[in-house]
Amino acid sequence: MTAICDLAAIEAMDAADALGPMRERFVLPDGLVYLDGNSLGVASSAAFRELQTAASEEWGQDLIRSWNTAGWFDMPLELGDRVGRLIGAAAGQTVVCDTTSINIYKALHAAMALRPDRSVIVTEGGSFPTDIYMAEGVVSTRPGASLRLEGIDAPTIEELIDGDVAVVLVNHVNYKSGELRDMATLTKKAHEHGALVIWDLCHTAGALPVDLDGANADFAVGCTYKYLNGGPGAPAFVYAATRHHGDIRQPLSGWWGHARPFAFEKHYAAGQGIRRFLCGTQPILSMRALKGALDIWDEVDMAALRQKSLGLTDLFIALVEDRCAAHGLELESPRDRAKRGSQVSFSHPHAYEIMQALIARGVIGDFRAPSTMRFGFTPLYVSYVDVWRAVEILDEILRTGAWQDARFAVRSAVT
Ligand SMILES: *Cc1c(COP(=O)(O)O)cnc(C)c1O
Fold first, then answer.
1. Residue 133 CB less than 6 A away from ligand 1
2. CA dihedral 87, 93, 94, 98 (to 10 degrees)
3. pLDDT digits over 181-239, tens only?
4. Which of 266, 299, 332 is the last residue of a domain?
5. 290 and 344 in a common domain
6. Cβ atoms within 10 Å, residue 147
7. Does the CB atom of residue 203 touch ligand 1 within 6 A?
8. How far is residue 179 CA from its own chain's centroid?
9. 224 in the same domain as 135
10. Which positions does UniProt annotate for pyridoxal 5'-phosphate binding (predicted)?
11. CATH number at residue 309
């Protein structure tokens, strides 16, 4: 431990970090240690420029012509391919649109329709809740359909997969613990039973490399406002493997997914390929901010990103356990780096208050009920010295009991 407890050694890690200069591209308030890019990624100058151009020139001056002249109409597919590179999807299989919740709905129905003789959806009891809620919604609209939950109907997801299962909806990285699943192995297991898999990549896209095509995945969904830095409410993405394209039906059959939207035909005819996952008009200003964010991602080598991510999370765990051992924090994330996404969670009975005290001192993470403090590590703009500073401040809050101030117990709507 002595080596990493030395600030000079940590400054040397930043000096040697090839991704270090990327931080300049982001708009980060001075002195802020931002460890919440797994909830809302940081703005970039590139995103602001895109927003400005889209608003003042394209909307402001060119108006309706911009659908053609500024490429607005094709943006969901163009940006989809750029997200695709980050998640191991060859071109033509990913489209940016709607929200993750809505894309889960579309993908679940599409998967169920591909397995008409089966009625069961399997997902995780410990999933980010919207995934479960959307699965419940799908079940409620399909007579005879039912839901099996890991942790409730059986301890592991693998035990729930049999010949009745149409589709498995599963997170690659758990939102709370940061635990990583083996995509290729679970996909293979589901396929052996004839089931399809939808991978939720909300905590994967922009956090670590993943190979959807290589794992033979069927579908995937994910959001772009977390690690991808697309901005608050930026549109999500949905992936479907090419082999399914001809047969995919999804129920939100709006005109943007039509084969000939501007023919204004009387009846729906599904568009070619991944385009059929589109529904209606997309939020172009949000798409443009995402485009700016993806301009930065185009330059990023995902293997280098993963190396730094693991360096940051390893350092955070080591420093917290060294400095704060006496204060009852328990590691909730995998100690084994190979099983860890790009976040670290610690539990504590007063996690909420401690997190508020951290935020008041400029270290931003978040709280997940009932007792988790979650820290996201985003290698494009978080430095090793940020990790050091965060732990210094955490240690101070715990040692002095500063978190016991009554104002830190007041709960906000968004935690
Ligand atoms: C963040 C997150 C979502 C968010 O869904 P929205 O529809 O964009 O609000 C969904 N699933 C998981 C696993 C998430 O982490």
1. no
2. -140
3. 999 999 999 999 999 999 999 999 999 999 999 999 999 999 999 999 999 999 999 99
4. 299
5. no
6. 17
7. yes
8. 13
9. yes
10. 100-101, 128-131, 200, 203, 225, 255, 281
11. 3.90.1150.10
